[in-house]
DNA sequence: ATGACAGGCGGGGCCTGA
């Protein structure tokens, strides 16, 4: 079973790109972030035509996440618990039955945290809320995949020029500590479990020729519970869509599990 | 040092992103 995550930076602007890639790679489950539309504006039929069940948690203009699954959803839960005031659409959880039992997929679009100080505080608070949710889910002792745009550069080898990023919200020590605390619950970074080479990126800025110069970041991740990590076969970044016309600034990353 | 790209919204430029 292949589980993919991809920040597509606007589903309406990227529908052809998304369907082309899905037809080519045919992941069983895909987590999309930054759909940037309300639920009713999501192009559900375009994905249903490819054989996907669709779950959407959107909002007007910004953010928004969607889950696509070839197998039907047993459960879908939108929104991250822990802050009733938080209206940003950044979290969508789905459960799917598989031959070996179930797999739970958590699709996240973690806040960027740059800009005003309160944005960084929101990011760290969101990471704390995510940690609490993951802690609860791990108690089920089932295959769990927490996938998405983390907006976290885990280590210096995950950015082209770490010294230039020291004060950035994606790489600040507090951010990395919160990410490490998540891993310390017992999660495995699927890509790093399969690859130890530096400078493997999932994001290249549109600006300043970042793609051409390979000035990238590794900020999109699939984190696995022990029961999922035991079944991990492979994890690959597919950078090819970054070279297409009108690309997203992120590329898909796919984990294959024997579920 | 600054700005550079891009999408959404809405119909001109501003906001947000990483």
TrEMBL record:
<dbReference type="InterPro" id="IPR036691">
    <property type="entry name" value="Endo/exonu/phosph_ase_sf"/>
</dbReference>
<feature type="site" description="Transition state stabilizer">
    <location>
        <position position="151"/>
    </location>
</feature>
<feature type="binding site">
    <location>
        <position position="7"/>
    </location>
    <ligand>
        <name>Mg(2+)</name>
    </ligand>
</feature>
<feature type="site" description="Interaction with DNA substrate">
    <location>
        <position position="250"/>
    </location>
</feature>
<feature type="binding site">
    <location>
        <position position="151"/>
    </location>
    <ligand>
        <name>Mg(2+)</name>
    </ligand>
</feature>
<dbReference type="InterPro" id="IPR005135">
    <property type="entry name" value="Endo/exonuclease/phosphatase"/>
</dbReference>
<feature type="binding site">
    <location>
        <position position="34"/>
    </location>
    <ligand>
        <name>Mg(2+)</name>
    </ligand>
</feature>
<comment type="similarity">
    <text>Belongs to the DNA repair enzymes AP/ExoA family.</text>
</comment>
<keyword id="KW-0378">Hydrolase</keyword>
<feature type="binding site">
    <location>
        <position position="149"/>
    </location>
    <ligand>
        <name>Mg(2+)</name>
    </ligand>
</feature>
<feature type="active site" description="Proton acceptor">
    <location>
        <position position="250"/>
    </location>
</feature>
<dbReference type="InterPro" id="IPR020848">
    <property type="entry name" value="AP_endonuclease_F1_CS"/>
</dbReference>
<protein>
    <submittedName>
        <fullName>Exodeoxyribonuclease III</fullName>
    </submittedName>
</protein>
<dbReference type="GO" id="GO:0003677">
    <property type="term" value="F:DNA binding"/>
</dbReference>
<feature type="binding site">
    <location>
        <position position="249"/>
    </location>
    <ligand>
        <name>Mg(2+)</name>
    </ligand>
</feature>
<dbReference type="GO" id="GO:0046872">
    <property type="term" value="F:metal ion binding"/>
</dbReference>
<dbReference type="GO" id="GO:0008311">
    <property type="term" value="F:double-stranded DNA 3'-5' DNA exonuclease activity"/>
</dbReference>
<dbReference type="GO" id="GO:0006281">
    <property type="term" value="P:DNA repair"/>
</dbReference>
<feature type="active site" description="Proton donor/acceptor">
    <location>
        <position position="149"/>
    </location>
</feature>
<feature type="domain" description="Endonuclease/exonuclease/phosphatase">
    <location>
        <begin position="4"/>
        <end position="250"/>
    </location>
</feature>
<keyword id="KW-0460">Magnesium</keyword>
<dbReference type="InterPro" id="IPR037493">
    <property type="entry name" value="ExoIII-like"/>
</dbReference>
<feature type="site" description="Important for catalytic activity">
    <location>
        <position position="220"/>
    </location>
</feature>
<feature type="active site">
    <location>
        <position position="109"/>
    </location>
</feature>
<feature type="binding site">
    <location>
        <position position="250"/>
    </location>
    <ligand>
        <name>Mg(2+)</name>
    </ligand>
</feature>
<keyword id="KW-0479">Metal-binding</keyword>
<keyword id="KW-0464">Manganese</keyword>
<dbReference type="GO" id="GO:0004519">
    <property type="term" value="F:endonuclease activity"/>
</dbReference>
<dbReference type="InterPro" id="IPR004808">
    <property type="entry name" value="AP_endonuc_1"/>
</dbReference>
<dbReference type="Pfam" id="PF03372">
    <property type="entry name" value="Exo_endo_phos"/>
</dbReference>
